[in-house]
Design a protein that fits this description.
Layout lengths: L1 H9 L2 H11 L6 H15 L1 H17 L31 H6 L12 H4 L29 E9 L10 E5 L25 E5 L5 E7 L4 E2 L7 E2 L2 E7 L6 E7 L10 H4 L4 H5 L4 E2 L10 E4 L2 E2 L15
Parallel strand pairs: 1-10, 1-11
Antiparallel strand pairs: 1-4, 2-3, 2-7, 5-6, 7-8, 9-10
Helix pairs in contact: 1-2, 1-3, 2-4, 3-4
């Protein structure tokens, strides 16, 4: 079944049909094949999975089964609402005016370097200590300790297990450890501001960190970015990486932040704001915020077209 998923994701349809036909002699049902192709849709995209479904139908039809349990509409996909993701060009976000493409993008054929990757077994080097940003140095970082936890889900609320997540953020004073950050705020020698972890079988993750501060970013004369944490979500291939930002409830800067406001749909914008969770908080230790990431569909989490700020 793993081979079927890989062949579907890679678009190797002739080999896919051969393997599907072979499964009929091993007791594998069409529903089980359908389920593995649904998982391929999560990682490789709906167009790729739909193509795989069509070839699976041909394989069953050729063997006289007629494909009754599988139809070309077997991949349930609720299209994202218009305005779910920010556009490349948002005039209020000054730097997009210069970098947004002015011409239609050109299609580039993907090679193995884009369609393959380490996969779940390739993340074994990611240790549990990398999810605790407060214990990466000799001392304790300055700032308000906080826990951020949630799940990575597909459009139907099903977990996407073994997903590699990376986060990066500024320190409590609003400064990154980066040579281009010239904000007149102190660096914290005990805080790097980067962490990573692999979601468990329920798609769940948990980071311990300090709450980032606001910082100026010179988009306008007196522009300040609201507190936020950058998230990077890795799929099974190197090209399947999504980047987004998580914000905090009640931040007055959200109403005037052009990056947050560049997502046109109000519900989509709201999905970028974490919820305070008293059950997640630990007494006399850390506040807890819960934030789920949805990878596609009408409830998809907005993703960035760049990773700045």
């Amino acid at each position: 079944m793993l081979t079927i998923a890989m062949l579907a994701a890679l678009g190797h349809h002739d080999e896919l049909k051969l393997h599907i036909r072979a499964t009929q002699n091993t007791g594998v049902t069409q529903d089980e094949v359908k389920e593995i192709l649904l998982k391929a849709a999560v990682y490789a995209g709906v167009p790729t999975a739909n193509a795989a479904f069509k070839h699976a139908l041909k394989a069953y039809s050729a063997d006289g089964e007629g494909g009754h349990a599988m139809t070309e509409s077997s991949v349930p996909y609720r299209h994202e609402r218009a305005g779910t993701h920010p556009p490349y060009l948002h005039a209020a976000y000054g730097s997009t005016v210069k970098r947004a493409p002015s011409r239609a993008p050109l299609p580039l054929a993907q090679t193995l370097s884009e369609t393959t990757g380490p996969g779940a077994n390739g993340w074994s080097w990611v240790g549990a200590e990398m999810a605790d940003l407060t214990r990466q140095h000799k001392g304790t970082p300055i700032g308000e300790r906080m826990i951020v936890a949630g799940r990575v889900l597909d459009e139907d609320g099903r977990p996407v297990p073994n997903t590699l997540l990376e986060i990066w953020q500024c320190n409590a004073a609003g400064r990154y450890i980066h040579p281009n950050d010239h904000h007149d705020a102190p660096l914290d020698p005990n805080f790097t501001g980067a962490g990573r972890m692999v979601c468990n079988e329920r798609g769940a993750y948990r980071f311990l960190t300090v709450k980032p501060g606001a910082y100026p970013w010179r988009n306008t004369k007196n522009a300040w970015r609201p507190a936020h944490i950058h998230f990077s979500v890795f799929g099974p291939a190197f090209a399947t990486r999504l980047i987004t930002q998580m914000y905090f409830p009640g931040d007055p800067l959200l109403a005037i932040d052009p990056i947050f406001q560049s997502t046109p749909d109000a519900d989509a914008r709201a999905s970028l704001v974490a919820a305070y969770d008293p059950e997640l908080s630990e007494p006399e230790w850390a506040l807890g915020y819960r934030w789920d990431i949805v990878l596609r569909g009408r409830a998809a989490t907005p993703v960035q077209t760049d990773a700045e700020h």
